Amino acid sequence: MENKINEKISIIAREITKGGNNVVFTGAGISTESGIPDFRSKGGIWDKYRPVYFDEFMSSKMARIEYWKMKEELYPDLIKAKPNPAHIAVAELHEMGLIEAVITQNIDGLHQDSGIPSERVIELHGNTRRARCTGCQRIISLDEVHRRIEQGDLAPECECGGYLKSDTISFGQAMPVEEMEKATDLSRNAYVFIVIGSTLLVHPAAAIPGYATTNGAFLVIVNLSETPYDDAADVLIQGKAGDILPEITKEVRRLKEHQCK
Ligand code: APR
């Protein structure tokens, strides 16, 4: 790995090891190495599909059929996806007590699969592994919905007459209040705030790193492409999360062993 990146990794590891309230904030880019496409890279989800807005979903059966068609096409990648080295490295930092929580825009559940307790994963955009009735709010497993769609029920409804929708936040849908409050609070109190794999373009989630920097957090960005926060970053590494995060965790371990001597 080039020297410049090694230097940056040492700086990040040193700040993390100071043991403040460090927070990780992730986007779809942390899951691409698990086989789940992101949204805005070339060939990403929004190159193939148009987002169905929440009000369309609620007012048009055709929109609900289109919505579930996209979900069904993404289903195989989702169910076989496993945490990749980036998820694992973040979970190891959490295990060492050096990461307070992970705030994620992702809906794939891979941070929980990597071993981070679910109460420490703040899912701003929900979780696509379950569906929810828009009427009675009942939760149904995604497998159950998948089975019904495979049997030809292309826009499944609940017995109460409500529409079944993946338990995720669509454009135009209200954000989860409790998760947003928790994420804002964590960010305001963060020492090192590490952004991994996000274009940081979609608000209100994209405002969250700003709460951290406004309160003096040490901002780290690990991302393959540019973000609006790049100039505000204390350390910016343009690289693959699966390569960079394990190197950070390795350096943190080395520093901690050194401290113990
Ligand atoms: N390592 C590091 N960065 C990566 C990797 C990788 N292996 N793969 C992709 N990236 C980067 C891309 O370059 C891009 O900058 O991750 C970023 C992913 O950005 P988006 O596709 O915009 O995903 P995200 O930022 O999570 O989108 C936010 O938009 O459509 C909504 O609800 C959706 O939660 C999503 C939100």
Provide the descriptors you would attach to this structure in a database record.
alpha/beta; 261 residues; binds adenosine-5-diphosphoribose; elongated
Summed up, what is this model?
Helix content is 41%, strand content 16%. The chain has helices at 3-16, 45-48, 54-59, 61-80, 85-95, 110-113, 142-150, 177-188, 208-214, 241-260; strands at 23-26, 101-104, 121-123, 126-133, 139-141, 164-168, 192-196, 218-223, 235-238.
Explained architecture:
The structure is a single chain. With 261 residues, this protein is α/β, with parallel strands linked by helices. The protein has 10 helices and 9 strands. The protein has helices spanning 3-16, 45-48, 54-59, 61-80, 85-95, 110-113, 142-150, 177-188, 208-214, 241-260, and strands spanning 23-26, 101-104, 121-123, 126-133, 139-141, 164-168, 192-196, 218-223, 235-238. A 6-stranded parallel sheet has the order 3-2-1-7-8-9, sandwiched between helices. Strands 5-4-6 form a 3-stranded antiparallel sheet. β7 (192-196), α9 (208-214) and β8 form a beta-alpha-beta unit. α1 packs across α10 (241-260), α5 (85-95) runs parallel beside α10 and α8 runs parallel beside α9. It is elongated, with a radius of gyration of 19 Å. Adenosine-5-diphosphoribose is lined by residues 27-29, 32-33, 38-41, 44, 105, 125, 197-199, 201-202, 223-225, 240-242.
